[in-house]
Amino acid sequence: MTALFEGLLRLGDTTLILSHRVSEWCGHAPALEEDIALANTALDLIGQAQMWLGLAAEVEGAGRSADDLAYLRDVWEFRNFLLVERPNVDFGHTIMRQCLFDQWNGLMLNHLSGSTDDRIAAIAQKAAKEAAYHTERSADLVIALGDGTKESHARMQSALDAFWPYVGEMFTADPVDTELARDGVFPDLASLRAPWDARINEIFASATLHKPDSAFAHQGGKSGKHTEHLGHLLTTMQWLQRAYPGATW
Amino acid sequence: MVATAAEVWAVLATVPDPEIPAISLVDLGVIRAVEWQNDLLTVTLTPTYSGCPATRVIAMDVEVALRDHGVQNLKLETQLAPPWTTDWISDAGRAKLEAYGIAPPQPAGGPAHCPLCKSQAVERISQFGSTPCKAQWRCQTCLEPFDYFKCI
Ligand SMILES: [Zn+2]
């Protein structure tokens, strides 16, 4: 497996799994506008996943399609960040997870827009435009809910504490990331941390939330070692293709 | 039977956008190129929002319209770069959007005025709307909610 294929799976699987998580809100969100916003966010993310996984399949050259990669792989073959497979818990957790990811994704897409691989640059330029709306919305909501009622503040702080140990994985380079960064295909992941911290600190200050002191970071998603939550998610997401292989409509 | 690129463009100008039928695919700016090579016609499309479900329907509608006009050998291609932006919507398309009740995109990031009563007193309800490309706004004068085609 080449570094390029691995790197593309990480982008594709992370957007795919987060898209599925966010889509679980469809029809259940606390207000109609939020329901629509979450569904649209999920849709944009699945569009990004299709492009990343489509390119991954092309790079692999084994005759697989983006759909094959999404529906016919098992847990250990997924390369998404652990952060995005965490359950939704409540609206506060969902928005906090989105904000932590959106701030990373916005920076990542801006860098990838100048990738030495033209195909990656084209996808990133396309995705960055949509992602800008996600980034703005999740930050606004974290501030509104963090600096909201006693109840909403407590829920946002508890969400932040719960997700914090999953932040580090987004910035920790392994040999795949290092190889891609050396060729100018991906940015150096560690270099995204300072601008991410700067923006996140501003958001949390406005939201009156306290950023946890711990630097502990769970690792594993990028190498296929997942939490039990991903298996349950895939059971739902892949059910149709597993029950009726090759089904189309 | 269409035979020239101009005739193909004329046919595509009659194919409505599946989600906003008031404008055509040409108005929307998603047709990047039309090219004949002997009897093979290649039409290059670009997606609006990457996850927009209308993208597949658009490709299907293009195929059906051109086959109806006698095109037998057709190839559809997708081109991502440069990415589609709301600047690709034609002036005619912008006018049709407004007449249909959807405020056309503005560089300032919000509607110029209410598409119904033209009042400039408008407020944003949500940056996300009924389709990936729209936001929800409300007029403070006539009180009607309306869609705004948001800029990307
Ligand atoms: Zn009005």
Structure description:
The complex is a heterodimer of chains A (249) and B (152). Chain A has 249 residues and is mainly α. Chain A has a single domain, classed as Ferritin, core subunit, four-helix bundle (Ferritin, Up-down Bundle). Chain A is built from 11 helices and no strands. In chain A, helix 5 packs across helix 7. The longest helix of chain A has 29 residues. The relative contact order of chain A is 0.15. Chain B is built from 4 helices and 7 strands, in the order H-H-E-E-H-E-H-E-E-E-E. A 4-stranded mixed beta sheet of chain B has the order 4-7-6-5. A 3-stranded mixed beta sheet of chain B has the order 1-2-3. Chain B is elongated and about 55 Å long. The mean pLDDT of chain B is 93. Chains A and B meet through helix 2 and helix 6 of A and loops of B. Bound molecules: zinc ion. Chain A: It comes from Rubricella aquisinus.
What would you say about this model in short?
Chain A is mostly helical and 249 residues long. Chain A is 65% helix and 0% strand.
Q: Percentage of helical residues of chain A? A: 55-70%
**Which structural class is indicated by helix and strand composition of chain A?**
mainly alpha
How much beta of chain B, percentage-wise?
15-25%
What is the number of beta strands of chain A?
A: 0
Low-confidence segments of chain B, given as residue ranges, are none
Number of domains of chain B: 2
- Got a strand count of chain B? 7
Kindly report the name of the CATH homologous superfamily of the largest domain in chain B. Fe-S cluster assembly (FSCA)
By secondary-structure content and strand pairing, the structural class of chain B works out as alpha/beta
Assigned CATH architecture of chain A? Up-down Bundle
**What is the highest CATH level, the class of the largest domain in chain B?**
Alpha Beta
Number of helices of chain B: 4
Instruction: Note the overall shape of chain B.
Output: elongated
Helix content of chain B: 10-25%
- Biggest sheet statistics of chain B: 4 strands, mixed
Work out the largest interface and the residue count of each chain: A-B, 26 and 22 residues
Beta-strand portion of chain A reads under 5%
Number of helices of chain A: 11
Mean pLDDT metric of chain A: 96
Distance between the termini of chain A: 32 Å
EC number (chain A): 1.14.13.149
GO molecular function (chain A): phenylacetyl-CoA 1,2-epoxidase activity
Pfam family, one (chain A): PaaA_PaaC
Keywords (chain A): Oxidoreductase
